[in-house]
Design a protein that fits this description.
Helix content of chain A: 40-55%
Structural class of chain A: alpha+beta
Number of strands of chain B: 4
Largest interface: A-B, 48 and 43 residues
Number of domains of chain B: 1
CATH topology of the domain at 12-100 in chain A: TATA-Binding Protein
Radius of gyration of chain A: 29 Å
Strand order of the largest sheet of chain A: 1-5-4-3-2
Order of helices and strands of chain A: HEHEEEEHHHH
Number of helices of chain B: 14
Keywords (chain A): Membrane, Transmembrane, Transmembrane helix
Largest sheet of chain A: 5 strands, antiparallel
Strand content of chain B: under 5%
Number of helices of chain A: 6
CATH architecture of the domain at 12-100 in chain A: 2-Layer Sandwich
Distance between the termini of chain B: 46 Å
Strand content of chain A: 15-25%
Shape of chain B: globular
Distance between the termini of chain A: 32 Å
Structural class of chain B: mainly alpha
CATH class of the domain at 12-100 in chain A: Alpha Beta
Oligomer: heterodimer
Order of helices and strands of chain B: EEEHHHHHHHHHHHHHEH
Radius of gyration of chain B: 21 Å
Number of strands of chain A: 5
């Protein structure tokens, strides 16, 4: 039998160095005297959600989710194993839950850094291939109209948009937004890895205690 | 389920909906909470209009609008936390990450593409050949009239593009992924296939980008009204507001699992356009989505228009090949 705390045999040890990225592991002691059957019975409603399939043996429950609804309390997980093991002080529920969302969020900063790099490269290519600056037509010094109501209410006098340095920089694709999103997803990953770990533990605890 | 007759249509026969403002719940809680969630929308609208009306020329620019837009959305996310419309629409970490991914695509990949083939390229071309003298009559109108016209004309274009998406199969393929969302939150407007987001960006309102202050005022109408399409907050929107403007209620109806309900409320800001064309249904729905609320993954959202389009073409080709020619009645 596979010990879910260690992962699969063979290269399991090596894989654990990285699979914490998308796997959440944890354990919860059962109420003294609580049987495996009773514990899984209390957790059962969590696996009756649309898109969820599960199998149960005496001490192990495996589940899989596909296209799970956002309203599913375990929607962040796509598969997992729950196992009840007997130890000296009493029975303990161990679980390993796999989340593609966590993996996706972990990798998202790389994708956005890629977009940033693409923006920089395109900007450089455009700069290299840009024709010599066009001769600007002498602009007519025309005053923009303003309605008397706006003048009366004190709105600023309209001006033609200036073609200043900022505007010229704006013509180049900017990598700033991509850097911001890369940072945002890095923060979200750390927050989600901690938050979802705690939320699922609390969910299981409440179910097992029947709260 | 029997549904409710609205005009010639029966709405809510497939999935529950609430029809009529008198049947829609009001904000619950103490007087302060009721006051805040009754006056928040008009106050913010007025404040934002006043800001853009009086902001000095060096402040009234697009970068300020982007900053205000982000700040406003963060504030609305906080309101979702305080006063959710439905518990079942609560924003989870996974939903937030998914929504922000689509928002991120809009700010990065799509904005890069649009520089070459989308609205930005069109606007650039128009601006290049723009003769200020010819537009002087428009700029001589009162600023708020200019802003209203820009906003209304843009929304008019969006209305027909959106209605087209619900009535013409090739366009529907691009829009369908957006209808797989099962709850409304602040960033859900960005969820969808990039082709659709690109098409929506092709609104004619973009042509008015060169009239800065009026365009910024029009944009603020979109922010202070259109944003409430996708939000999990209950407001007591004033009667005049819900007559003129799109609301969460209207848009939840549009996202309902009920097919007939989803064929209503197409406008983005001005729901009065739907009233003009007989497609407005006043009401709300909690159960949203397609195929009974099946969640669509990001990868399927990205490929859906192409894979579904290919399936349809292949099925049609097979039918044409194997079906016997129809027997026509002899004259």
């Amino acid at each position: 039998m596979t010990d879910i705390r260690r992962g699969k045999g063979g290269n399991g040890v090596n894989r654990r160095f990285i699979d914490w990225i998308w796997n959440i592991r944890g354990s919860l002691p059962l109420i003294p005297g609580q049987s495996s059957d009773d514990a899984f019975g209390r957790l059962d409603p969590l696996f009756q959600e649309p898109g969820t399939s599960h199998e149960r043996t005496a001490d192990t429950l495996t589940f899989r989710k596909k296209n799970q609804a956002a309203q599913d309390k375990m929607s962040v997980f796509d598969a997992g194993v729950l196992q009840i093991q007997k130890s000296a002080p009493g029975c303990v529920l161990h679980y390993r839950l796999k989340s593609r969302a966590l993996l996706f969020c972990f990798l998202a900063p790389l994708l956005f850094l890629g977009f940033a790099q693409a923006a920089v490269t395109i900007g450089e290519l455009e700069k290299a291939s840009a024709p010599a600056a066009e001769e600007k037509k002498p602009e007519k010094n025309m005053e923009l109209p303003q309605h008397p109501i706006d003048k009366f209410l004190g709105a600023p006098t309209p001006e033609k948009p200036k073609k200043d340095k900022d505007a010229e920089d704006k013509d180049k694709p900017s990598p700033t937004a991509a850097y911001v999103f890369a940072g945002l997803f890095a923060i979200l990953y750390v927050a989600g890895r901690i938050l979802e770990d705690r939320l699922v533990k609390s969910l299981f605890r409440k179910r097992l205690l029947g709260v | 389920m029997n549904g409710v007759r609205v005009g010639k249509r029966v709405i809510g026969a497939q999935s529950p909906v609430t029809i009529g403002w008198e049947n829609i719940p009001r904000v619950q809680g103490g007087p302060l909470k009721q006051f805040v969630f009754t006056w928040f929308q008009p106050t913010m609208l007025l404040a934002l209009i006043a800001f853009w009306y009086y902001a000095p020329n060096d402040v009234a620019k697009a970068s300020t609008a982007i900053g205000i837009g982000i700040g406003f959305k963060v504030l609305l996310l906080a309101l979702e936390w305080v006063n959710p419309r439905h518990e079942s629409w609560r924003l989870t970490w996974k939903e937030l990450v998914t929504d922000l991914f689509y928002v991120g695509l809009g700010y990065t990949l799509l904005s890069m593409v649009e520089r070459y083939i989308g609205s930005d390229a069109v606007i650039e071309a128009v601006q290049h050949n723009f003769d200020w003298d010819k537009f002087a009559w428009f700029m001589g109108l009162p600023l708020l009239v200019q802003a209203f016209l820009i906003s209304f004309i843009f929304d008019f274009g969006q209305y027909w593009m959106h209605r087209g998406m619900h009535n013409w199969y090739p366009l529907w393929l691009t829009h369908a992924p957006h209808h797989y969302i099962t709850q409304l939150n602040i960033n859900k407007g960005a969820v969808g296939n990039p082709v659709e987001l690109f098409l929506i960006g092709l609104g004619i309102g973009g042509f008015f980008d060169f009239l800065p202050r009026a365009a910024l005022l029009a944009g603020t109408l979109g922010l202070a009204v259109g944003t409430y399409q996708h939000i999990n907050v209950r407001f007591n929107s004033p009667r005049w507001w819900r007559f003129l403007f799109n609301t969460t209620e209207h848009h939840s109806m549009h996202h309902s699992q009920d097919y007939e309900a989803s064929r209503s409320n197409y406008a983005s800001t001005w729901i009065v356009i739907d009233r003009m064309f007989g497609t407005c249904v006043d009401g709300e729905a909690e159960l949203l989505g397609m195929e009974g609320g099946r969640k669509m993954s990001i990868s399927e959202t990205m490929t859906f228009p192409f894979t579904e389009g290919w399936k349809t073409i292949r099925a049609k080709l097979r039918r044409d090949r194997f079906e016997e020619p129809a027997v026509l009645p002899a004259e």
